[in-house]
């Protein structure tokens, strides 16, 4: 048993951290004033968009652990590029369907794709049952992927985002959200590759959960680091506010919550490719339930430590809160996942 | 990164599991008589020792097996899973002795500590020195080739069953408080030592207070240099945490299963609100387990235990206490009317978890230090 990152994973963390650090948001106005296409290119050039493409043996180039390392860095930097949507979630769907060439185009950074989520953002849209859908994390994407039922099992379908979608006002300012303006016409769905197995779908969900958990762990850790730095420079009553035990204990509690979420996330990320799909999924639900239970509180604590300035639109604090709120919701909020865990645990035996 | 056992660890675990199944004394947890219970724990210590399961991570030269702390964690986990009698807590006393003792002291004290022939307790806290341990007032005055000890120790767990004590006392009142403390290895059977059990709110004698009246300790039983006591104490308490936590987690999971069973008996599993509460308790246990595994890995890779132990301590206290709240909510009147035996006692036993070994508030102060927040 050894739960630490390998040297290679540690190097990956540094590379991802450098890219996310230089591309990261310093304040909300950066969202409109900076060139995010360049960030996407540097992610592509570093190979970070290719982690879920398959090697000659058909294995993912990077495991769930590598995905989580990069996703955490992107979350920490609040980087407004569709890393999860395109490089992880859409790429994985394409590879599971055997559409490796399409996945390769996403990995090169020359094309982007997003995913369609159902009405309550709790999972991948599945046609024909799901009517109204959302395109999530679709910045720069021409199309988004979803599932459709077929006699051979669920199949991946692509939908053009060019028409039939309108921008939705997302709480999260760093990920583009579109809403279909009505039920999706079946004629607009194009089937991709081979049908998926039940195991494929479980693994995909486990990967999605681990990736979004890693993102929100990054959001929490970096938000808290900013609040702590502020507490070390902000003076009131002639002393640094970080010397007040009230502030110290708020920070300590938030730190414990974020680190606990990180521990559960690391395991879920490792489980994606290492455990049976059912166990990997339970690990993912557990991590997500923990992340969702604490992410709002942690980012609210950060806004509180920043005091008045932390409540303003110009300040970065609410951008953390917004991304944390959306991360907490997508692929199941705490209540939904606790009920799924209960279904596994409480079988009456 | 791999959360699974290595082949060696898996082999050790399989052998251990079989050994425990063969050796755990039947009905040990039903023993009511206190003397009998004490005898059983001592006997279990010896049984474990004879099988080579005590001091797994101690250096070989001091009678250990020189294994990584992961093996201690496996021992704790399997003991917890199979509901074995409590493991002897020799780790922290042993650590203090083989890190700071003279060769002569090591030869004298380590073998019987390992074998269970001598039982130890830890004389640190005092009535006026709880969280602020360094303000302790028990004095050790040098008188020829002896120290003369006077004072009172509190929360000396196992004091009533111990033969020896790792004692902290002030040897120099004229220097800053952290620098005037020395550590001693002392028999609690000496004249002048009085041990009185402390009954905690649960009604159980979980701990003890120890009075020291003109107790004479030979100078050669001082551990380390004069004034080195604080450093020894900090080493000791940092090794109190760690692998043993895994044992608590195993116990937590067994208790959770019991609580789930209680909920099922009362027909609560149909209701989503109760299902969510039970699932939440599972998540808390998992989070604690995974956090402890990370800390253990960090120790195995050579980093000494640090303040991140405070994170696990806070998670543990919260999980343990929340689980007892959940049990109380499920049991309702049964817990408060004596109809559900043991649960009210368990509830009160969970309360000091956020006090002993450094209160929750002290743990948060330690984390604030670690985060480099200003004093």
TrEMBL record, chain A:
Organism: Acrocarpospora corrugata
Keywords per UniProt: FAD, Flavoprotein, Oxidoreductase
Cofactor(s) needed for function: FAD
InterPro entries found in the cross-reference section: AcylCo_DH-like_C, AcylCo_DH/oxidase_C, AcylCoA_DH/ox_N_sf, AcylCoA_DH/oxidase_NM_dom_sf
Protein name in UniProt: Acyl-CoA dehydrogenase
Family recorded in the similarity comment: Belongs to the acyl-CoA dehydrogenase family.
Annotated Acyl-CoA dehydrogenase/oxidase C-terminal domain residues: 211-343
GO MF annotations in UniProt: acyl-CoA dehydrogenase activity; flavin adenine dinucleotide binding
TrEMBL record, chain B:
Cofactors demanded by this protein: FAD
Keyword annotations of the record: FAD, Flavoprotein, Oxidoreductase
One of the record's GO molecular function terms: flavin adenine dinucleotide binding
GO annotations of cellular component type: plasma membrane
Domain Acyl-CoA oxidase/dehydrogenase middle: 121-215
Transmembrane segments annotated in the record for this chain: none
Keyword Calcium appears in the UniProt entry: no
SUPFAM superfamilies: Acyl-CoA dehydrogenase C-terminal domain-like, Acyl-CoA dehydrogenase NM domain-like
The Acyl-CoA dehydrogenase/oxidase N-terminal domain, residue ranges: 6-117
Residues of the Acyl-CoA dehydrogenase/oxidase C-terminal domain: 227-370
Similarity section: Belongs to the acyl-CoA dehydrogenase family.
Name the UniProt record assigns to this protein: Acyl-CoA dehydrogenase
Organism: Acrocarpospora corrugata
Organism taxonomic ancestry: Bacteria, Bacillati, Actinomycetota, Actinomycetes, Streptosporangiales
């Amino acid at each position: 048993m050894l739960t630490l990152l390998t040297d290679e994973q540690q190097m990956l963390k540094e590379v991802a951290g450098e890219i996310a650090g230089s591309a990261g948001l310093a304040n909300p106005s950066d969202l409109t004033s900076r060139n995010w296409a360049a960030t996407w290119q540097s992610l592509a050039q570093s190979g970070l968009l290719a982690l879920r493409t398959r090697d000659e043996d058909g294995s993912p180039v990077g495991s769930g652990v590598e995905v989580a390392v990069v996703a955490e860095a992107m979350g920490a930097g609040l980087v407004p590029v569709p890393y999860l949507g395109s490089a992880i979630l859409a790429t994985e769907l394409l590879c599971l369907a055997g559409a490796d060439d399409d996945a390769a185009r996403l990995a090169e950074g020359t094309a982007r794709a997003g995913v369609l989520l159902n009405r309550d953002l709790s999972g991948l849209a599945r046609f024909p049952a799901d009517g109204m859908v959302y395109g999530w994390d679709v910045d720069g994407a021409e199309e988004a992927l979803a599932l459709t039922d077929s006699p051979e099992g669920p199949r991946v379908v692509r939908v053009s985002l060019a028409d039939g979608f309108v921008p939705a006002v997302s709480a999260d300012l760093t990920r583009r959200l579109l809403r279909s303006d009505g039920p999706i016409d079946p004629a607009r769905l194009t089937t991709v590759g081979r049908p998926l197995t039940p195991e494929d779908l479980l693994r995909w969900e486990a990967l999605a959960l681990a990736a979004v958990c890693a993102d929100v762990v990054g959001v929490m850790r970096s938000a808290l680091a900013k609040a702590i730095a502020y507490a070390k420079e902000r003076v009131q009553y002639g002393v640094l506010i970080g010397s007040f035990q009230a502030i110290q204990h708020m920070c300590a509690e938030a730190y414990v919550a974020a680190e606990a979420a990180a521990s559960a996330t690391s395991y879920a990320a490792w489980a994606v490719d290492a455990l049976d799909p059912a166990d990997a999924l339970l690990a993912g639900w557990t991590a997500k339930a923990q992340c969702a239970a604490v992410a709002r509180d942690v980012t609210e604590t950060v806004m509180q430590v920043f005091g008045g300035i932390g409540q303003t639109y110009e300040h970065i604090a609410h951008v953390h809160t917004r991304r944390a709120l959306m991360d907490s919701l997508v692929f199941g909020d705490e209540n939904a996942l606790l009920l799924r865990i209960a279904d596994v645990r409480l079988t009456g035996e | 990164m791999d959360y699974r056992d290595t082949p060696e660890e898996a082999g050790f675990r399989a052998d251990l599991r079989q050994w425990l199944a063969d050796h755990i004394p039947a009905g040990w947890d039903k023993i009511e008589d206190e003397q009998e219970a004490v005898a059983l724990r001592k006997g279990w210590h010896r049984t474990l020792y004879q099988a080579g399961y005590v001091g797994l991570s101690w250096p070989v030269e001091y009678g250990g097996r020189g294994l990584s702390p992961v093996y201690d964690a496996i021992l704790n986990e399997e003991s917890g899973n199979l509901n074995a009698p409590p493991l002897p807590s020799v780790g922290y006393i042993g650590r203090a002795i083989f890190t700071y003792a003279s060769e002569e002291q090591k030869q004298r004290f380590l073998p019987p500590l390992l074998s269970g022939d001598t039982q130890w307790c830890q004389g640190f806290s005092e009535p006026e020195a709880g969280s602020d341990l360094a303000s302790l007032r028990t004095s050790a005055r040098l008188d020829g080739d002896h120290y003369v000890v006077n004072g009172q120790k509190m929360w000396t767990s196992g004091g009533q069953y111990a033969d020896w004590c790792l004692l902290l006392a002030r040897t120099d009142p004229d220097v800053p408080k952290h620098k005037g403390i020395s550590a001693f290895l002392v028999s609690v059977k000496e004249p002048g030592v009085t041990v009185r059990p402390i009954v905690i709110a649960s009604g159980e004698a979980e701990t003890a207070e120890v009075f020291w009246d003109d107790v004479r300790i030979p100078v050669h039983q001082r551990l380390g240099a004069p004034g080195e006591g604080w450093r020894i104490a900090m080493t000791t308490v940092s090794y109190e945490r760690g692998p043993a936590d895994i044992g608590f987690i195993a116990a937590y999971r067994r208790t959770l299963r019991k609580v789930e069973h209680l909920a099922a008996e009362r027909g609560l599993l149909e209701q989503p609100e109760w299902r969510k509460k039970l699932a939440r308790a599972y998540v808390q246990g998992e989070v604690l387990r995974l956090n402890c595994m990370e800390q253990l890995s960090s120790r195995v890779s050579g980093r000494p235990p640090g303040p991140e132990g405070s994170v696990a301590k806070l998670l543990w206290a919260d999980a343990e206490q929340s689980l007892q709240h959940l049990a109380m909510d499920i049991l309702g009147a049964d817990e408060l009317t004596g109809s559900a035996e043991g649960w009210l006692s368990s509830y009160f036993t969970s309360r000091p978890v956020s006090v002993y070994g450094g209160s929750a508030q002290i743990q948060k102060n330690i984390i604030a230090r670690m985060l480099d927040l200003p004093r």
